[in-house]
Amino acid sequence: xxxxxxSKAEREQGHxxxxxxxxxSLRELNxxxxxxxxxxxxxAWEVLNPKGSHSVAVGVDQxxxxxxxxxxGYYCAGMNDGAAITVHGSAGPGVGENMMSGSxxxxxxxxxxxxxxxxxxxxxxxxxxxxxxxxxxxxxxIVVHGNIGHMxxxxxxxxxxxxxxxxxxALGDSIYEARLFVRGKVESLGADCIAKExxxxxxxxxxxxxxxxxxxxxxxxxxxxxxxxxxxxxxxIDNADAY
Amino acid sequence: xxxxxxxxxxxxxxxxxxxxxxSEMLVSLSDRGPDSAGIAxxxxxxxxxxKITVQSPTPDRDFxxxxxxxxxxxxxxxxxxxxxxHAVIRTTPDKFDAAREVLQTLRPDIxxxxxxxxxxxxxxxxxxxxxxxxxGVRAMTGTHGIGxxxxxxxxxxxxxxxxxxxxxxxxxxxxxxxLSNHNNVRRELIRDGMTFETENDTEVAAAYLSxxxxxxxxxxxxLEGTLSDLDGFFTFVVGTKNGFGVVRDxxxxxxxxxxxxxQYVAFGSEYRALTKLPGIDNxxxxxxxxxxxxxxxx
Lengths: 243, 298
Description:
heterodimer; A: alpha/beta; eleven-stranded mixed β-sheet; 11 strands; elongated; B: alpha+beta; Glutamine Phosphoribosylpyrophosphate, subunit 1, domain 1; Alpha-Beta Plaits; 2 domains; 8 helices; 16 strands; globular
């Protein structure tokens, strides 16, 4: 998708710190972001010409906003702790890996293992996510407007994965306590993952997530909930076939 | 790791730039594999010319007088264009098999990189930039091509272990991944008459496809067969005389991005490889689905 251009007036108004990756190295960008301290005046950042670079804006631990104008490669916004990062393009593998808090919005698609091992914060993917989305998630909330690929939420421990489209094969294989909400069809469920009843508290939780992710025109009641059957937590010889 | 690229042109106006475009794509993925690099370029087949790309460890000795020696042996006109350690031998299509056979005795040390009506293959140990520079790939014209930069896992870092692998006329393949049942498949293919130059897993995949196509399958059907018959991790990009195909194994952990416009279809291990292509900002960009065969033909 084309990167949304920002107008000069908009840029001046926003007082954003503009960082052009065709002029400066990725390391300079990430070091500048890591040097930010609480109360810094540089609260708005704009990254130009990412052109598929790896590790753009990883490890940011201050509540700044970062707009990346274009598509990124591996591991964008990994370990994010408090920043609001928007990618105006698509993201390569491992976007938002191990996010602690804050938010990440991908305007395009995300490649495999988006939000892997995330412990907190909100990851929104406005396009599709491919395989292993939310693998081993540990508290992160992930909202995908499109579809997700196979083996998503594998060994997911806690947090919420919301999918407005369809899910691929083996959803939630060996899942622990994460909640999965899927609006479309699920190709197949993984070991120990089952469909569960949508009780009022789940509708409320899901509506809150949809609102937070800026999703409109979609009702929480349109989703099905999936989660753990809790049969594989501890080894039981009778369940040996399920592993 | 390894990095792979492919470019299939729809717009004839881009053909003079194919070598330059493909070189840029491959060089951008250098850090995915520094061991060796290779590229296959398909020029338009004229129907009255056959090409054999050969490589020699001692090009000065092996290529000197090769045109005259070969012409005499097969009784047909032969031209030899030397590019560093490689040379492209051209002759008439009816003498193609004879030329291949007699080469083994005329110059026992040379190796055939690839042959057919359209393809030329150049591959060597070293970084992509050094390899494309050495063979003047940027100046090459063509309709489609594939490339590879290697981080070796399965066999030695040698010229013959570099990709693309070619095991049939105008057929070649590049691979990111590793195959676990290649020894078994190699044995089965040898029993069916295929020959191998290396211990490399990817050569088995290339030979598997050539073998299936020799048994009457089209490229799409042959690629489909890899999903059930090859075990391991793979993203394959394949070239044939008229076409270009892509397939990923069902687990699909090896990365892949594709882009399509009115002018071309492009493949890259990463989006980085595609960023310099014309009109990329407005291209349809997507990740090919696991266990799904994609192919385009002219």
